[in-house]
Amino acid sequence: MRRFILITVAIIIVLLVAVIAAAAWLINDESFLKQQASDLALKFTGRELHIDGPLDLSIGSSIALNAEGIRFANADWATPDQMVAVGSLAVVVDTRSLFGGKPDIAHVALSDCQVNLENHPKHGTNWADLVPPKKEPSETEKPPRKGLPVILRDTVIRDCQLKFERPESPVYIAVSQLRFGLTDDSRWEAQGVAAINDEELELDGWFGPAGVFIDGGRLDHELNLTLGPNEFSSSGYIEDYVAATGANIQTRLSGPSIENFLSRLGSPSISQGPFDFTLDLVSEGNMTRMSINGDFGDLKIASSGLVDKIADPEAGTIGLKMAGPSLFQLGEALGFSGLVDEPFELEINADFEPGMANISS
What we know:
alpha+beta, 20 strands, 17% helix, 50% strand, disordered N terminus
């Protein structure tokens, strides 16, 4: 019996060594890895994935993947042939984290890439078939909130372009460099330089804690954004992100031309000239005081009030004062006709109740 056990153990050890040797050989077989990646992409997306350049996979305390010349096919009706093309991709994942239910991705580097998105009036979007239908769980089925599903520590994107063809107007985004990730498991940071439709964009900011959009609770942030000649800044916190209560935030938006700024957002022009306004939110007990002041070109706006929460308020009052050179111009922009072309001053008050806002002027 003892001899039988020893022989059995020896056979198992030999089999394990053979399996490990085979696995080691396979992960170093570039053709095998490329075929596996292509087969998986075709199985789960119905589209072809090609890796034209080198592909390397190493496994130890970390799993490191490096690939070049990646091409992912577009929808049959869309152009160009590739929906995504990537010059170089590098990913490093902590191996042990894959067995703990929360992958810890130490580093992602993406460079020389092109993403082609399209919203066609007849065919719809070129990514619709890649996204499974969303099924909303019932209240009894909804899982409890429990932190970040994945940890993404450091991501760097260089020299990448995104083209979004849509019926209203195309959008082109060129990223020179974007870096974002977790600083110390407590907050996300991002810095980047890009261009949107040939207008330079600079981003520098952070928010935390990292899982606030999943777990709720207090959200702290600081954001500085420049788009061409326009500048946006915001800092502060909100005590309960989900309930939208307890806000203490200071925000400013300014630029040389309100009409050009609104045009970029696809909004009608309600005014002309430079703009500079501030939004301040200050907590006062269970209420939040809201104050908006500034110039929207030749349209002057001032608003103040006290509400229980900044989204869908159910208690409180907000007053709005607006003055401008042409009521006719404002009406045209907002879709009202028959208004006189004269200077105007308006004063509007809103009283909030649960599910209702009472407007008076």
